[in-house]
Amino acid sequence: MKQPLYALLVAPGHKTRTSILYGGKNISIREGHRDYRAGNPVMLCCHIEPWVVMAVITEVRHCTLAEVTEKECLDDGCQNNAELLAALKRFYPNLTMDSPITIIRWDNVRGWLKDNDVEYRFRPQTLYSRIQPE
User: Fold this and answer.
1) Could you please report the per-residue DSSP string of 66-116?
2) Is residue 79 part of a domain?
3) What is the CATH number of the domain that holds 78?
4) Is the pLDDT reported for residue 40 higher than 90?
5) Interval 69-120: pLDDT, tens
6) How far apart are CA 104 and CA 96, in angstroms?
7) Which of 40, 53, 104, 125 has minimal CB crowding within 10 Å?
């Protein structure tokens, strides 16, 4: 059976989005055990401020927040599990160290924004003006 197209919402934030385009951010930690699968395409996107690229899921791990490794914390931009918990509570207010989570990694980011990543990094509004209707 063919797998559906997966999606991950990416919060607005130029630094995070630029990091995704340049390969600095290739991990997301989400509340709950989710049915993402390695090898499948994933759309990284935002419905608040339009932004979208494609990637390929390379790794999926299910665990509790307390079981997130130091490397996974660092890769997601946090120093430790406590800092990660605080950061994730912005999106998941009921999250605890015992909460189940899914760690998703990806690579091979591609698409129009990736093709125009230098302009996106330094002049995002100019780039957006080229794609927004008048």
Assistant:
1) GG--HHHHHHTT-SSHHHHHHHHTTT-TT--TTSEEEEEEEEEEESHHHHT
2) yes
3) 3.10.400.10
4) yes
5) 999 999 999 999 999 999 999 999 999 999 999 999 999 999 988 888 888 8
6) 19
7) 125
